[in-house]
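Example record for the data management plan.
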Amino acid sequence: MNIQKRIFVFIPFYMRHIIFTILISIIVYSCNSSKKETLETFTHTNELIDETSPYLLQHAHNPVNWKAWNENTLREAKTSKKLMIISIGYAACHWCHVMEHESFEDSTVAAVMNQKFISVKVDREERPDVDQIYINAVQLMTGSAGWPLNVITLPDGRPVWGGTYFSKVDWIEAISKIEALYEKEPETLREYATKLEEGIKGMDLIHLNTEDVDLAGFPTDILLKDWSKSFDTVFGGYNRAPKFMMPNNYAYLLRQAVKKNDSTLLDQVTLTLDKMAYGGIYDQIGGGFSRYSTDIKWLVPHFEKMLYDNAQLVSLYSNAYKVTKNPLYKEVVTETLAFIASDLTNEEGAFYSSLDADSKNREGELEEGAFYVFTKEELQPLLSEDYKLFEAYYNVNDYGKWEGEHYVLIRDKTDVAIAEAFSITTEALQKKKKSWKSTLLKYRNKRDKPRLDDKTLTSWNGLMLKGYVDAYKTFQKEEYLQAALKNAHFIANKQIQENGALFHNYKDGKSTINGYLEDYAAVIDAYIALHEVTLDSQWIVKAKQLADYTFTHFFDAEKHMFYFTSNEDAALVSRNFEYRDNVIPSSNSMLANSLFVLSHHYDEKNYAKTAVQMLKNVLPEMEQYPSGFSHWLNLLSNYQSKYYEVVITGENALEKAHKLNTHYLPNTLLTGTLTENSGTLFEGRYIENETFIYICVNNACKLPVKETEDALPLLNN
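Corresponding structural encoding:
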């Protein structure tokens, strides 16, 4: 079942016990499964027809009188004094589709919901602030949460009950019992809502850490030792299922392995990257990764493809290639970016959000993974005399068998091993692979493709922009830089408002929804990276302007952390800090890393002070759960060894920057100028008709050098 546990949310036992005791007296729910079908004709239309979100539009013809989350809906709930059903999901979510088909397309269910409730549909990707509140609530009530997320609230929006997927029978029974309780004993629910509200507000509380902390001497070795106990040393990743890819975890572990020359840790990172690239979680024909593996071996994926996963994995594999020079990693980056370009990029250079897990099978019914799997009967005539080799290479056997007679293409051997087994050269195998993929891609593209979520999210676009930049740094392919620049200009021209604020969403030529901290954090990070490959000052200037905006509208001067929502947004049940890293780094950890870098660019003491304080605030929790704070640990690494400012001045600065960028240098800031520049890092360093590379630490520089080969040794002492 597609229910991702939020393993990094920690709730005091006594609070959970109180809430669970109250909850269990109200209702118990269970969970089954089914397959999604599509409506061929529309006999109903609700208010969601006026929305742009693909997820909301998927429900626009349900008999449920769905409404969007907006001021009018919230006002109606308060005026009518009806309970609200708030149902949250996203377009690519398989189990959201299952519940829609079983319950929300059913007239009996709709009759119950329409009579007694105000029913609200929320796209969690459009409204992560709303999702955060209610997923925290369900975490408190049940101990885990995921999507679809279904919550019942009082008319004022305070939750009183919730869960994830429900079968039709369980759903009707549950909401009927809650509504009956509301009619007979409304005070019971109000008291419960008050207790739950207190719990929600306490979940993401952050305390100002005023203790003196020796960041340079912080015992990361102890953290890594405890962390490593959860490693799967056979299949990579963590020793559990389902398996999520957690790119920011492995980005940090890669950095630590290189820094400490730890071959064991590096082996664990590369084992994970190899197994993910070999597994069914990676689309062996079309490139790109699915969201997670349902098993411990990375074999069978949950087939939805998300932009944010692929963006971060492009960065991770690009950096891993710098360290290992493993051609598999280059192949993964090349194919994944080809997938992004063909399937998730629009004419403006903006990136779409996702592809659905479901697609139509031969019978015309929506089925998970139907687009991606093959039968032997399909493969044999397509591959002809190469079939036996293909069968062995991609495990068209019991190892790769999925459901019925369908197979997921999976690798478990290296190219060298396969070539030796079939007595061919690796070069010949590479040519065959290229031919196979071309043939099967053309064949597969004749099928009905998975549904596209074609909205553009600023935060995810920032991640993908950074992915393109990291790929360009490593492989120096001009098309990657051009894609990055096109997207960067799209964000600058369409998503940055005149007052300096960001929009969160873009769809059908229209920018909407005031930006969240995640939008600023991702774009700032991406613009800093883009400056390092272009040396164009506009990107570092824009990064600083966005950072300054966050201090004005998101910063809590008491806690020295940044709220997830702007002070210009309407108040929700709680205004929280997002600071625990998950499949995406938290907005606070991303911003703290960028403030550290910007403090060096601009000699901005407040940025430096804030980054340190933010890091100190999370250290106590980091010590207990390091895997939930890996991007914070990346920031900590900057204080544990020299952090270099690489400043290049002169007409050949860009050429020198390109060469340096191909090396793995996580503890460096790179900047440069082709002409005289008054910036903080350039003062007194530009000499006409000369190109110099300055290696500095805290603005104290060694004698400049002219060649990158001479600069590199200076970055390691």
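Summary line stored alongside the record: Confidence is low (pLDDT under 50) at residues 1-39.
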